[in-house]
Amino acid sequence: MKSLSETWFAEGYIDFELKKYTLLAYLKEVNKYFTESKLYPQLSDIIFHFNNLVAFRENKKFLQEHFPKKLTGIQMEKLQLLYQQMIEDDELMQELEDIINYSASKMKGTINSGVEIYELVEENIIINPVGIIPLDTQEGYFFLNTTSQKQTLVYHYRLSFFEKHDEKYRSMKTAYVNSWDKNFVNSFESIKSELIKYRHQLPNPAVYSIQIELGFPVEETLLPVAKRSLVKYISTQAA
User: Fold this and answer.
1) DSSP category for residue 15
2) How far apart are CA 187 and CA 8, in angstroms?
3) How far is CA 110 from CA 24, 35, 179, in A?
4) What is the chain's pLDDT, residue by residue, as a tens digit (239 residues)?
């Protein structure tokens, strides 16, 4: 999917109709994926752009405090110059404000559509420990079991911390391990035993089952939501 640039609303000619066309083409593409129940990376991408618009509109200090740090020096300089032009040009300021207000409203509607799908999946996720969970839960495995798959998908996970605006967050990196056919032989306990037997780097891993009784796409929807839900679950259990 072709995304917007980080500063799309401030690039080139500042014209409401031109930016409206650019935005609607982008939203049409995002909505196409949401119609197919495919959330990622589209949902995180549109939330990123929405937050940029809000930061630009509500806080003139966002260049130092709120705007994503991945902006280049050239992009930062461009936005600083734009602020100077806005102060000196009432017409330009009004045009840009119209673009931002319109775009934020349109994006919010599309975000809500994606969030509805996200919440539906999240509400139907069931997480349970497999066997005894060790004290160290920063690394382990989880089993993703959905109605749309004939196999149990197994992933290795590792939790890490990162800081953003003086707050600490947990993130989860995952790697696909293998899949097991769903049958009486391949119980969660037996899969866990095989992992311990053949993957010696984790002799006593934390293992969780994540069951979702929905037939949504795995990579684009079920897996991303499952990962976020597991982070919350582990954090709650550790509290």
Assistant:
1) -
2) 51
3) 11, 11, 34
4) 668 988 898 777 889 999 999 999 999 999 999 999 999 999 999 999 999 888 877 765 444 444 444 445 565 566 666 555 555 556 777 888 899 999 999 999 999 999 999 999 999 999 999 999 999 999 999 999 987 788 999 999 999 876 555 556 678 999 999 999 988 899 999 999 999 999 999 999 999 999 998 889 999 999 999 999 999 999 888 66
Output the six-digit token pair for 154.
């197994």
DSSP conformation letters of 57-98: HH-TTHHHHTS-TT--HHHHHHHHHHHHHHHH-HHHHHHHHH
CA–CA distance, 140 with 195 (Å, rounded to integer): 10
SS3 212: strand
Of 177, 175, 179, 170, nearest to 228 by C-alpha is 170
**Which of 108, 104, 124, 114 is closest to 41 using CA atoms?**
114
- Residue pair 220/39 in contact (Cβ under 8 Å)? The answer is yes
Identity of the amino acid at 97: E
Give the list of residues 6+ apart from residue 76 with CB closer than 8 angstroms, or none: 63, 67
In the block, which residue shows the tokens 């066997």?
131
